[in-house]
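Database export, one record per block. Field names are fixed; values are copied verbatim from the stored entry.
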Amino acid sequence: FTGIIGRDDVARYVAAFDIALQPAVVKYASPLKLFEYLALGKAIVGPDQPNIREILRADHNAVLFDPDAPGGLAGAVKRLCDDPLLRARVAQGARDLDVVLAHEIAHVLMDSGEHSQEPGNLMRDETTPANIRLSDAQCLRLRETGSANGLLSPR
């Protein structure tokens, strides 16, 4: 167990995972860790609940489990461990460039990628439509990321 790691080190640690786990979450959550797992092309195990199905698709980019079933999480992990072809297919599906770009957009909008209430973060509670314009640098970063991934046509 590593304990708490710095934000800049997360990708290096997640890259070492064979299977990335997302235990059950509250009904309104959209965990950032899922986007990190997707961006790194990990085989993901997550709960089969509506908010998570907005991000993950069963047997496409994740193996989903019933969060209310005893042993559900363990069974999903075992399924991936026992089936290397499924594990590879789910990891490949995790590399869906639309989802990865959406994650990049979220980080740009949040400016630092840190907690949304930090000063300077565009996603603060008091933010209004009048003050969420992207800077030229943020627009350039979005264009470059989208173009590099074949999601936007270069100008």
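Remark 1: Residues 82 and 100 are 27 Å apart (CA to CA).
Remark 2: Residues 97-109 form the longest helix (13 residues).
End of record.
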